[in-house]
Specification:
8-stranded antiparallel beta sheet, 17 helices, alpha+beta
């Protein structure tokens, strides 16, 4: 009898010890309430119009939402609202490359010259041997390309053509530099190798086979559902406005930052990444783990490494990727050992947007720290305040010097244009140009901080008005 009891107890202990950790960490009502309270606080503090959150805890999936998808229509945000997911798109494109490799249609070790013989780079002013540039260099952001903003090119091919003869910041394979152009090149490789356009390939080979029927590689298709959220930016100390890129920019950069998805589909995506989805084609059971393997590049500043569209912590216990798009912000957090996944989707980008990775606060709640409050990303917040104040002061002083210059011109007697005055006029004129030109060159930054552009314009006007004041005839009375 004792032997039977001992045997049964042993079996029970073995069973309990074999139960995955996630089965013992289901979300409590208190945690659910705390998460809802937190995202409502985040929406209020950041002035974000709408937020949707998907949380996967083992075999449980939970959705939370706050605010609206569109301020004009007052449509509430929910788990079926569609959002641009920004750079979280990179993981999908990279998975497409791994899919083609598993099918034997390419290899990450392929030379880029094999697929794009017309592409060329330069390093230290000299042509790079493109035979030495491999596909994995682009997947792991080790190509040496630097971030630029493509114009309204219209196609992925046009966007890649824009980097022909680009000057690299380091020789391929000798560093790490995150750049959208890397993933756009992978997107073009997908089109060439699969002989399908990017949208068709993603739908037929990746999204639908994974059960993701609410994720789009075409912004117009997403809008046609009537559930696509409107993007917003907030600038000049909490002034929120609608702002999105054109459809041409979205099409050109689709592989790197313009996929559209819902919280419901992103929950499915996280289940796939965590190995919780069993009803998927066998090929994905092979390539999903490979997409989490760190690349052949250097560690980033935070000690993490870049895999295939994912940042992976040094101990591989934490995988994440965020995305900031025109008018949208996304965070995706994965904790494979704990079988936890968190995605936060919002329709605000800018100085006060939800860019301080609120998914981390939600993870704290799941860890038992129920009291969480939202804090904005102080860097953007304080920069926005500084730029806004400088803009106002610059405009006021510019008007003042302009009026003083006009007053001088009304005087009867005038002073000759001396050498000293000419030097001063030239100095302030150069200062005005020095402020105006950089604003034009980096105008793509306005989707992060509008007040930065405004400050540059205000200072250019100020320095120009000072030059005008100095050049104005003086009265000898």
């Amino acid at each position: 009898m004792k032997r039977r009891v001992t045997f049964v107890l042993t079996i029970l202990l073995l069973f309990v010890s074999s139960v995955p950790a996630f089965a013992m960490s289901a979300m409590s009502d208190e945690q659910s309430t705390a998460i809802q309270a937190f995202i409502e606080d985040a929406r209020r503090v950041s002035r974000t119009p709408g937020i949707s959150v998907a949380v996967v805890v083992g075999d449980e999936t939970h959705f939370f939402s706050a605010g609206v998808a569109n301020r004009e229509t007052d449509i509430l945000a929910n788990e079926d609202t569609l959002w641009r997911i920004g750079s979280s798109s990179k993981a999908f494109t990279s998975l497409g490359i791994l899919y083609l490799e598993e099918q034997g249609l390419l290899s990450l070790g392929d030379s880029i010259a094999e697929h794009l013989p017309w592409l060329s780079f330069r390093y230290n002013g000299e042509a790079v041997d493109m035979q030495e540039v491999r596909l994995y260099h682009f997947m792991h952001h080790a190509s040496g390309l630097s971030m630029i903003m493509n114009s309204d090119a219209g196609s992925i091919h046009d966007g890649v053509e824009a980097v022909i003869d680009a000057e690299l910041s380091f020789y391929p394979g000798e560093g790490f530099a995150y750049a959208n152009e890397n993933t756009n090149i992978l997107g073009l490789i997908i089109e060439i190798v699969s002989e399908q356009n990017y949208e068709t390939f993603m739908i037929e080979r990746i999204l639908h086979p994974l059960g993701m029927t609410d994720t789009f590689a075409n912004d117009e298709s997403a809008r046609a559902t009537g559930r696509r959220a409107q993007g917003y930016v907030t600038q000049f100390i909490f002034f929120t406005m609608e702002r999105e890129t054109s459809n041409a920019v979205a099409t050109t950069n689709m592989p790197t930052g313009f996929l559209v998805s819902s919280a419901r589909d992103m929950a499915r995506w996280m289940e796939v990444q965590l190995g919780l989805a069993t009803d998927i084609p066998e090929i994905f059971h092979i390539i999903i783990p490979r997409s989490h393997v760190v690349g052949q590049n250097m560690a980033q500043s935070d000690g993490s490494y870049y895999a295939a569209g994912w940042n992976v912590s040094a101990d591989q216990s934490f995988i994440e990727h965020g995305g900031t798009n025109w008018g949208f912000g996304t965070n995706v957090y994965l904790f494979p050992e704990e079988q936890i996944g968190i995605t936060v989707l919002s329709n605000l980008a800018g100085a006060h947007g939800t860019q301080s990775r609120p998914a981390g606060n939600i993870k704290d709640i799941l860890d038992g720290n129920l009291s969480q409050s939202y804090s904005m990303l102080w860097t953007f917040q304080h920069l926005d305040v500084t730029f806004t104040v400088t803009t106002v002061l610059g405009i006021v002083l510019a008007v003042l010097f302009l009026l003083l210059g006009l007053r001088r011109r009304k005087q009867n007697e005038r002073l000759p244009l001396t050498k000293k005055r000419m030097v001063l006029i030239a100095f302030w004129a150069v200062m005005a140009v020095a402020m105006a030109v950089p604003m034009l060159l980096v105008s793509w930054l306005i989707f992060f901080i509008y007040s930065f552009l405004a400050m540059g314009i205000a200072l250019a006007l100020l320095f120009g008005s000072v030059a005008w004041f100095v050049a104005s005839p003086r009265c000898t009375k």
